Task: structure prediction
Amino acid sequence: MSARVLVGVKRVIDYAVKIRVKPDHTGVVTDGVKHSMNPFCEIAVEEAVKLKEKKLIKEVVAVSCGPQQVQETIRTALAMGADRGIHVEVSGKDYETLGPLQVSKILAALAKKEEASLIILGKQAIDDDCNQTGQMTAALLDWPQGTFASELAFEADKLKVVREIDGGLETIKIKLPAVVTADLRLNTPRYATLPNIMKAKKKKIAMVKPADLGVDVSSRLEVLKVDEPPTRQAGVKVETVEDLVGKLKEAGRV
Amino acid sequence: MTNPLRGEVIRLYKNLLYLGREYPKGTAYFRERLKTAFMKNKDVTDPEKIQKLIDRGDFVIKELEALYYLRKYRAMKKRYYEPEH
Result:
């Protein structure tokens, strides 16, 4: 097998950071906030690198769309073992409205350009939680898709994907080329250590513009309002069982 | 006279310092502890003992990586999966 795998990585606000909504409700505060690679993208990168280590594929290419800073995310992917990176430059207004459809178009165009035979993505990003990019990419390319993968194996010229579905697992076999999206249990991503980050600086990151790929990144979606989730109501302490039963009756629970 | 293990020790310190940036209790807390731990052994000269201490440091690196992974995994599981009954 001498295939090339394309892995999409997204730069998001770090999972451990408390998200704050902008006072004017147009979005969330991103300035001066720690960013890192989307956890599900880490799983996708790890899976691709593992396939390479097993010599089932030839090359792992990490792709990210966004402003200059996404190069850090690509660098993390390179430190984890990806061979080279592609930075699709999208900035300013276009980046603010960049959604799954636009990214899918970019990924689909790149997959054709790079002659990739497999695309591995995270199932969703922890910032917008769209869970659409993998599905749309597969649709645009007219490739089969294995979403929510918790196990991946090559079987002859096909790919066996075990999928996480409600209440259990589903095993499917799909033809290559294909799109796979990684679920949480697919693997344990390795840590991008300092020595590896340093070594990754020698790896190449190519710069591409969406226009070079013939992709229009304009969006037809408009964000009307971004709100904080409702805060949880405080509980009450009750002294006796009678009190408790009384309160429950009041609330109509018994 | 510079110790041949000097480079190794510096490498270990740098790697730990880098890992400390993600420490749940904060970078400053971690750096202080890290420095104290290294300074405590600054007078060790026996190469065998230094090697043992380096090995322990490498073990701590593995532990920290495992800690960060588990912390992230648990956060993701809590956010995206129904609690198991």
Notes: Helices of chain B lie at 6-20, 27-40, 47-80. The CA atoms of residues 9 and 33 of chain B lie 16 Å apart. The mean pLDDT of chain B is 91. Chain B is about 75% helix and 0% strand.
